[in-house]
Amino acid sequence: MKLTESSETLLSRYLLAVERHLPYQGRKDMITEIKSNLMDTLEDHYPADECIDEVRLEAELRKLGSPRTVAAPYFPSDALIAPQYNTIFRLVVTRLMPIVVAAVVFAGLLSFALSRGENPFWSLWELVGTGWQVGVGLIGTAAVILMVLSRFFPQVHPNKEWDALEEDKESWKVSDLPELVSAQDKVQVWELAMGIFFGLVALIIWLFLFDKVAGIWWRVGGQWRMTPIFTEAFKNFIPWIAINAGLGVIAYLVMLWKRRRSIGSRLIEIGTGISDISLVSAMLGAGTLVSLDKGIALSMGFPAEALDVLQNLLAHNAVHWIMVAILVALSIDLLANIVNLVKRVLER
């Protein structure tokens, strides 16, 4: 028994859809078992030298049922949350919680920017803690409510989930199966969420708080003190830096929406990369970007030894060579994105 190229693609898409409905723990072993059982079934139905096309494979898959139907038996029967509530809990974790946390973080960032708090480090730390508490609290509350319903009201719509599965078994379509994602196009939701969060924080700092938080910080006499080090030549580039940071957030949002690196997100990344390279090149020719006034720093209580080290680094053009290293890294990243975009277009 052999599969054509199109039928292999269909099988991979079907198994990917099944995998997404399986419990996270042991998912790889489960999908391996499901695939093995399916291949054994096909080998029993078709001779070894026969080639199965996409139409016949689809007919065999329909006998199994929808991906959700195939995955349902792998959920433990003694689960704290009954199967009929799995869909609700999944929606809370994957949809409602990110939206609520994002709203809380955005409101906190906006409040932080407008209030210009005296202790920026503590305010940002409080914001992260608040977002974490809201997310964990929402998931925990939903879990407790659904566990109580499962424990004390086990007969509430006991067959609703299975009725839905039977209906789904008959009505699923091949077009509903997820497209296969190549290794270079795969993304992790947590990485995108972190990128969006820190991108928004960077935008707030660049646009509203730069003069207040950008400098060398030191704790003197139980208080945090800051001495500015960035020159006016550097500050002239802040609007350009903020635009690039905003483009980065947009690229992350597109990838989060698509759950993959699409052609659109790659074009945004390439455009941002070109802009970043142009920005760094312009900054290299803009003169002095970082300058330290030792007298002001000493008057604010900064250690003289630390200041000597910093001045020594500046005297040896440390900023220039850091910018050169950034330029090289950006160029390599841009080239990789262009190559991956060309591959993606050729594959289509």
Descriptive tags:
348 residues; mainly alpha; 3 domains; two-stranded parallel ribbon; two-stranded antiparallel ribbon; 71% helix
What's the arrangement of secondary structure elements?
Blueprint: E1 2-3, H1 5-21, H2 27-45, E2 51-52, H3 54-64, H4 67-71, H5 86-115, H6 120-152, H7 160-171, H8 189-213, E3 216-220, E4 223-227, H9 232-235, H10 238-258, H11 263-284, H12 294-299, H13 304-315, H14 318-347
Parallel strand pairs: 1-2
Antiparallel strand pairs: 3-4
Helix pairs in contact: 1-3, 5-6, 5-8, 8-10, 10-11, 11-14
Structure notes:
- 71% of the residues lie in helices and 4% in strands.
- With 348 residues, the chain is mostly helical.
- The chain has 3 domains: 2-70, no CATH class; 83-153; 225-347.
- A two-stranded parallel ribbon has the order 1-2. It has a two-stranded antiparallel sheet with strand order 3-4.
- Strand 3 and strand 4 (223-227) form a beta hairpin.
- Helix 5 (86-115) runs parallel beside helix 8 (189-213), helix 8 runs antiparallel to helix 10 and helix 11 (263-284) packs antiparallel against helix 14 (318-347).
- The model is unreliable at 161-167 (pLDDT under 50).
Number of domains: 3
Total of DSSP H or I helical runs spanning 4+ residues: 14
For the terminal residues, how far apart are their CA atoms? 29 Å
Q: Order of strands across the widest beta sheet?
A: 1-2
Number of strands: 4
What is the percentage of strand-forming residues?
A: under 5%
Strand and helix order: EHHEHHHHHHEEHHHHHH
Average predicted confidence as pLDDT: 80
Largest β-sheet summary: 2 strands, parallel
Q: What helical percentage do the residues reach?
A: over 70%
Structural class: mainly alpha
